[in-house]
Amino acid sequence: MLIQILRFLLETLFFLLIGAALLRAYMNWVRVNMSAQPGHFVMALTDWLVKPLRRTLPKPLAQSRLDWASVLAAVLSALAYALLWGVLFGVLLGAGYDWSSLGPASWLALLGFALKMLVRVALQTTMLVVLGYVLVSWLQPGSPVHSLLARLSEPLLGPLRRIVPVVGGVDLSALVLLLLLQVGLIVLA
Asked: What three-state secondary structure class fits 37?
């Protein structure tokens, strides 16, 4: 039971860190004001990692529209999660903990585990944003939270709205996106 609690806490901590870094990159991509919430929270969670990375990136990457430092922070956090998971739970090292005995297959397993975590967090964070957008659009349309979630969701929902018809005055594109994201999580599992 103690191991399950430790796994849960470790996964939750890294989910927040990776999700915040990805959300920071996405919010910068769609040009959302980071001084309001959740930008302030996201920056508080990730500044310790993103700012040093931003200083080390070449100028063309550091000044591009995509926040490469935040993306790199998410990737490094996923790698740290996979490595810590492997060390704590013996997935990679077995009983010996001899780093020199790790072969290419073990390192590929580590990278695969990290990539799987990164994609899973991206899909689940997207689900939370879209679900929040749907709920707020029903409960408080026109609120500041609604406009923020609309700006975050619109690049994803716009292409679907051109394909999915409105049924009885109800836009089903968010439902279709949530179903696609859930299918992606099933495939990933």
From this structure: coil
Residues with Cβ within 8 Å of 15's Cβ and at least 6 positions away in sequence, in order, are: 121, 124
- Model confidence at 99, in pLDDT bands (50, 70, 90)? low
Q: Which of 137, 141, 142, 173 is nearest to 157 (CA)?
A: 173
Q: Is the pLDDT of residue 1 over 70?
A: yes
- Residue ranges of alpha helices (H) inside 30-103 are 39-56, 59-62, 68-89
Alpha-carbon distance of 38 to 19, in angstroms, equals 12
Please tell me the distance from the alpha carbon of residue 11 to that of residue 3, in angstroms, as a whole number. 12
Closest CA to 19 of 48, 51, 41, 4: 41
Tell me how far apart the alpha carbons of residues 49 and 17 are, in angstroms, rounded to a whole number.
10
Q: Report which of 54, 93, 44 is spatially closest to residue 76, judged by C-alpha positions.
A: 54
Of 62, 57, 53, 59, the residue nearest 28 (C-alpha): 62
- In the predicted model, what is the mean pLDDT of residues 137-154? 91
For residue 189, what pLDDT is reported?
A: 86
